[in-house]
Specification:
By secondary structure, the protein is α/β, with parallel strands linked by helices. The chain has one domain: Oxidized Rhodanese, domain 1 (3-Layer(aba) Sandwich), CATH 3.40.250. The protein is about 35% helix and about 15% strand. A 5-stranded parallel sheet has the order 1-5-4-2-3. It is globular and about 35 Å long.
Protein backbone atom coordinates (compact mmCIF):
# COMPACT_ATOMS: atom_id res chain seq x y z
CA UNK A 1 0.00 0.00 0.00
CA UNK A 2 1.45 3.33 -1.05
CA UNK A 3 -0.68 5.44 1.29
CA UNK A 4 -3.02 4.58 4.09
CA UNK A 5 -6.41 6.19 4.61
CA UNK A 6 -4.93 7.95 7.63
CA UNK A 7 -2.16 9.42 5.47
CA UNK A 8 -4.65 10.63 2.86
CA UNK A 9 -6.71 12.35 5.54
CA UNK A 10 -3.59 13.96 7.07
CA UNK A 11 -2.47 15.24 3.66
CA UNK A 12 -5.91 16.69 2.99
CA UNK A 13 -6.05 18.33 6.41
CA UNK A 14 -2.73 20.08 5.66
CA UNK A 15 -4.33 21.81 2.67
CA UNK A 16 -7.87 22.57 3.77
CA UNK A 17 -9.72 24.65 6.33
CA UNK A 18 -10.97 22.79 9.38
CA UNK A 19 -13.30 24.66 11.68
CA UNK A 20 -13.87 23.98 15.36
CA UNK A 21 -17.14 22.66 16.66
CA UNK A 22 -17.68 26.03 18.36
CA UNK A 23 -17.34 27.84 15.05
CA UNK A 24 -19.63 25.32 13.36
CA UNK A 25 -22.31 25.90 15.99
CA UNK A 26 -22.07 29.66 15.38
CA UNK A 27 -22.36 29.18 11.60
CA UNK A 28 -25.44 26.97 11.87
CA UNK A 29 -28.40 28.91 10.51
CA UNK A 30 -26.24 31.53 8.76
CA UNK A 31 -27.98 32.32 5.43
CA UNK A 32 -24.61 32.39 3.62
CA UNK A 33 -23.66 28.87 4.80
CA UNK A 34 -24.79 25.47 3.59
CA UNK A 35 -23.96 22.54 5.84
CA UNK A 36 -23.44 19.40 3.79
CA UNK A 37 -23.71 15.92 5.27
CA UNK A 38 -21.62 13.41 3.29
CA UNK A 39 -22.51 10.36 5.39
CA UNK A 40 -24.30 7.31 4.09
CA UNK A 41 -28.10 7.46 4.15
CA UNK A 42 -28.14 4.64 6.74
CA UNK A 43 -26.13 6.86 9.12
CA UNK A 44 -28.63 9.69 8.71
CA UNK A 45 -31.55 7.38 9.45
CA UNK A 46 -29.81 5.83 12.46
CA UNK A 47 -28.19 8.91 14.03
CA UNK A 48 -30.01 11.94 12.66
CA UNK A 49 -28.45 15.00 11.06
CA UNK A 50 -27.82 18.70 11.56
CA UNK A 51 -31.13 20.52 10.92
CA UNK A 52 -31.14 22.23 7.54
CA UNK A 53 -28.13 20.28 6.23
CA UNK A 54 -28.07 19.21 2.60
CA UNK A 55 -27.33 15.50 2.13
CA UNK A 56 -24.74 14.71 -0.56
CA UNK A 57 -23.42 11.17 -0.20
CA UNK A 58 -19.65 10.92 -0.39
CA UNK A 59 -19.76 8.48 -3.28
CA UNK A 60 -21.68 10.89 -5.54
CA UNK A 61 -20.30 14.26 -4.52
CA UNK A 62 -17.97 14.91 -7.46
CA UNK A 63 -20.85 14.20 -9.85
CA UNK A 64 -23.34 16.34 -7.93
CA UNK A 65 -20.90 19.29 -7.97
CA UNK A 66 -19.91 19.18 -11.66
CA UNK A 67 -22.28 21.25 -13.84
CA UNK A 68 -21.45 19.01 -16.82
CA UNK A 69 -22.56 15.89 -14.98
CA UNK A 70 -26.08 14.48 -15.46
CA UNK A 71 -26.21 14.20 -11.63
CA UNK A 72 -25.49 17.90 -11.03
CA UNK A 73 -27.31 19.70 -8.19
CA UNK A 74 -27.51 23.48 -8.63
CA UNK A 75 -27.16 24.09 -4.89
CA UNK A 76 -23.43 23.89 -5.55
CA UNK A 77 -23.57 27.00 -7.77
CA UNK A 78 -25.13 29.08 -4.98
CA UNK A 79 -21.88 30.92 -4.19
CA UNK A 80 -22.44 30.18 -0.51
CA UNK A 81 -19.89 28.80 1.91
CA UNK A 82 -20.04 25.03 2.26
CA UNK A 83 -19.37 23.37 5.61
CA UNK A 84 -18.99 19.61 5.14
CA UNK A 85 -19.26 16.95 7.80
CA UNK A 86 -19.26 13.20 8.19
CA UNK A 87 -19.21 11.16 11.40
CA UNK A 88 -15.64 11.81 12.60
CA UNK A 89 -14.26 14.31 10.08
CA UNK A 90 -12.23 11.91 7.93
CA UNK A 91 -14.47 11.61 4.87
CA UNK A 92 -15.32 15.31 5.03
CA UNK A 93 -11.61 16.21 5.02
CA UNK A 94 -11.18 14.23 1.79
CA UNK A 95 -14.32 15.84 0.36
CA UNK A 96 -13.08 19.37 1.04
CA UNK A 97 -9.75 18.56 -0.63
CA UNK A 98 -11.60 17.30 -3.72
CA UNK A 99 -13.85 20.36 -3.69
CA UNK A 100 -10.81 22.63 -3.64
CA UNK A 101 -9.25 20.61 -6.47
CA UNK A 102 -12.49 21.17 -8.43
CA UNK A 103 -12.22 24.95 -7.93
CA UNK A 104 -14.30 25.69 -4.84
CA UNK A 105 -12.71 28.11 -2.41
CA UNK A 106 -15.43 28.66 0.21
CA UNK A 107 -15.27 25.14 1.63
CA UNK A 108 -14.31 23.73 5.01
CA UNK A 109 -15.18 20.88 7.31
CA UNK A 110 -15.98 20.36 10.98
CA UNK A 111 -13.25 18.96 13.22
CA UNK A 112 -14.61 15.79 14.79
CA UNK A 113 -17.65 15.74 12.50
CA UNK A 114 -21.17 14.88 13.55
CA UNK A 115 -19.87 13.01 16.58
CA UNK A 116 -18.31 16.23 17.93
CA UNK A 117 -21.49 18.14 17.01
CA UNK A 118 -23.58 15.78 19.13
CA UNK A 119 -21.11 15.82 22.04
CA UNK A 120 -21.24 19.64 22.01
CA UNK A 121 -25.03 19.57 22.28
CA UNK A 122 -25.69 20.80 18.73
CA UNK A 123 -29.26 20.37 17.50
CA UNK A 124 -30.03 17.07 15.78
CA UNK A 125 -33.00 16.24 13.62
CA UNK A 126 -34.26 12.70 13.05
CA UNK A 127 -36.31 11.49 10.14
CA UNK A 128 -39.68 10.18 11.14
CA UNK A 129 -40.38 6.55 10.33
CA UNK A 130 -42.85 6.17 7.49
CA UNK A 131 -46.27 4.90 8.51
CA UNK A 132 -47.19 1.49 7.15
Amino acid sequence: MKKTAKQLVAEAEAEIETISIEEALKLHGDQDVIMVDVRDVRELKRDGFIPGAFHAPRGMLEFWVDPDSPYYHDIFSSGKRFVFYCNLGWRSALVVKVMQDMGFDRVCHIAGGFDAWCQAGGPVEKKEAKAK
